[in-house]
């Protein structure tokens, strides 16, 4: 396993309760950023605790640069303080009673370096993260962005083998978040080891990660690049992230039955349980029954209209709850308002359906 | 003031205030101010002052050395019977001190469960010695420290300790550099409470250690004895103790009450 010698290889099994088990595999080569993207309660923080050594595994192994940190079957367990993993914690957890420099030097001081020696080691990081002049401040006296940089410096200063970022931007307001995302990308790239970003924010994952693992209900439901997730989401959650429609249906004879509605599809051979992916932009909106070729035409009501710049997103109701994306100009031309009846149409060739992959709920 | 306060509350509240003010006013009115320097340097007073200082500070020190780890164990280690142990540790808070003193006498006295072998083995006799005073005051006062520090340890965000561990700190370093500093305000408050309680200890001390001037007669005991013989000495010591208690309150004012 030459590839495993440099990077993180983890198979994590942790039983959180009788009916919630986190069971995932993650592989991160050095120099690569992986995002673990999932909703709240999916098991993301459990993964952080397992990797950091706060929670021993129930089953599985964690190997970092070829060294076993946790191996449930062999009784190997390296305690957190011996793991050499730099963690940027959610809410940063900067030590409130220590100055900025003491926070950053903490990793080296814990490793037995003298105060002077630790200061020398960390001086570089103060400059790199633009914290010069703030050395003697307490964390409470810093802005959110400054706190984030101190947390990053503290996690990076002792030259860890793995960088773990747990929701590094969620403590910030939206404006700061957007500007810091770019800065963070730069720091991530500069870190030579494997990097794992834990987040519930698709923008963060799409922007910062080379590869995205989607975690839902304790399992990985999809692995891929940002484009893979965006264009070919495999679960309802992933599809919501990308703003597309992912529907469960039963196929047969060139049709898919989705709830109370039947869609005509192009693939005549498809049968059984399928996932239907209906891109929001592939749906047309009309004021009166449309003429011409579309075989999928139905009447529905506009439940909500969201304007997003030049685009608009409509949420429609019975018989098929869909997200529909049209131009803002179209909304105005059609004089659409919430609660109104409209006609929708989709070409059969625009409906992508595939058999439900095993293991994906 | 937004709206009017109900008259009944104001009246009952005022009665409460009067109830607290009158005793202190009475005490202050009776104090023989001009004789104070002479009264406070009388041998019986100086003996008691020295003894009380040593005993209360020793009790506080013991409480710090033993009570903080005890609080940590109660807060952080999950073991069977923890509630029971906590109950026993905190019992002296609600137990009449005299009963505490009696319990000490039956266990650590000359004929006691532990006291007898201790005396026969080492010749050490706790009752009627300063050691007895220290044991009695520690027994009564230490629970204040344990309960305060345990609450602080429970309420502190333990994720900071995990963060320190991830930075390479051993559990001892985490305790010393993160846990202790983060609970420091509560630790100080607990120590002050413990010391104040130790200084005022009466019932357990007189029951277990006796009332020998220069050996086991602390300030509160001296007040009690002096009330029968020399009331001005009792007043002088009482004033001194009120002043000390007031200082403790003022020192802890940020913790307990906010002056406006």
Helix and strand topology:
The complex is a heterodimer of chains A (361) and B (260).
Chain A: E1 7-17, E2 20-29, E3 33-37, H1 44-52, E4 59-64, E5 67-71, E6 76-77, E7 85-88, H2 100-110, H3 115-128, H4 144-157, E8 162-166, H5 174-190, E9 195-199, H6 202-208, E10 211-216, E11 219-224, H7 226-231, H8 236-242, E12 245-252, E13 255-258, E14 261-264, E15 272-278, E16 284-286, E17 296-308, E18 311-316, E19 322-327, H9 328-333, E20 341-346, E21 351-355
Chain B: H1 7-30, H2 36-40, H3 43-76, H4 82-94, H5 97-108, H6 115-122, H7 130-155, H8 159-166, H9 171-199, H10 203-208, H11 219-229, H12 231-251, H13 253-256
Helix pairs in contact in B: 3-7, 3-9, 4-7, 7-9, 8-9, 11-12
**What multimeric state do the chains show?**
heterodimer
Strand content of chain A: 35-45%
The two chains with the largest interface, and their residue counts, are: A-B, 24 and 19 residues
Amino- and carboxy-terminal Cα gap of chain A? 32 Å
Helix count from the secondary structure assignment of chain B: 13
Shape of chain B: globular
Topology, number of strands of chain A:
21
Beta-strand percent range of chain B: under 5%
Structure, described:
- The complex is a heterodimer of chains A (361) and B (260).
- Chain A is of the alpha+beta class.
- Chain A has helices spanning 44-52, 100-110, 115-128, 144-157, 174-190, 202-208, 226-231, 236-242, 328-333, and strands spanning 7-17, 20-29, 33-37, 59-64, 67-71, 76-77, 85-88, 162-166, 195-199, 211-216, 219-224, 245-252, 255-258, 261-264, 272-278, 284-286, 296-308, 311-316, 322-327, 341-346, 351-355.
- In chain A, the strands form four sheets. In chain A, strands 7-8-9-3-10-11 form a six-stranded mixed beta sheet, with helices on both faces.
- In chain A, helix 2 crosses helix 3 (115-128), helix 2 (100-110) packs parallel to helix 4 and helix 3 (115-128) packs across helix 4 (144-157).
- The model of chain A has no long low-confidence stretch (mean pLDDT 86).
- With 260 residues, chain B is mainly alpha-helical.
- The longest helix of chain B is centred in the first third of the chain and has 34 residues, at 43-76.
- Chain B is globular.
- The A-B interface holds A 52-54, 79-87, 89, 91, 93, 95-97, 106-107, 110-111, 154, 158 and B 157, 159-160, 162-171, 173, 177-178, 181-182, 184.
